[in-house]
Sequence to fold (267 residues):
Amino acid sequence: MPNTHQFALERPFQLQTLPTDGKQFHPDRDVAETEFKALRKEFVQLQRQLYAEDKQKLLIVLQAMDAGGKDGTIRNILKGVNPQGVRVHSFKVPSKEELAHDFLWRIHKVVPARGMIGVFNRSHYEDVLVVRVHNIVPEAVWRPRYEQINQFEKLLHDTGTRILKFYLHISKDEQKERFQARLDEPDKNWKFSREDLEKRKFWPDYMAAYEEMLHECSTAWAPWYVIPANQKWYRNLAIMRTIVNTLREMNPQFPEADGDLDQIVIE
Ligand code: ATP
Ligand code: MG
Fold:
């Protein structure tokens, strides 16, 4: 049974001790890529059934440091999936209108409907990460959010949504290399942001915020997975394995045909 990297609470716990390197979990990149493609085929089929069944919902949450690979994950995982059955939402700095509401307002509006898969590129977790690290609101405001998030996710779960949360765990060195590539390679220049360099200075604070988030918000109904993400091929495989396993459990079925179709004659 391959390691799913589901976060298991252990005290004392330090994110630093969890692997960023996927190579130790898989000996061979080519084999991993072959397995990934086979699983993606199965994912495409299961997604068709989920959409046709029109009963269950799947929510996939992606969080990572800058250059952690959220975009690449979405591109690779969703390739070939029927776009009508999937919605990707990227959460940016909240607008004035969003800030005038509670922090879950903009999230709740776009959670997946029946039959749908929702993918969050960043999420409500920004409200206990960037917001905490940069003191955008006081602790008295962000601390209760862990519990509010757990309750919110419980509501989604109890109303038919399976939730998978992936933290793409890269090392600080790997982030440096990826930023450098954004500077060096013309077709990656557009991704470079000076702001990201500012955030990099707060790496330890972000790690502490991620640690507490994992600690507080790993629940039976909405587990966190800490994915070793330095190697993109392993990251993709580990995430795809969890998604496909979950969809197999959800076991979506094509609906029953409408009466006896054999009797129907099309003039
Ligand atoms: P890329 O990784 O490709 O740069 P991105 O997800 O970083 O994509 P950007 O537009 O560069 O997209 O950045 C979005 C920014 O919005 C991030 O810095 C993120 O921390 C910030 N953000 C998201 N949600 C919130 C929030 N609730 N409060 C404050 N900032 C937020
Ligand atoms: Mg960015």
The CA atoms of residues 149 and 248 lie 26 Å apart. The mean pLDDT is 96. DSSP finds eleven helices and five strands in the chain. Residues 66, 71, 90-94, 121-122, 126-127, 130-131, 136, 191, 193 surround adenosine-5'-triphosphate (ligand 1) (CB under 6 Å).
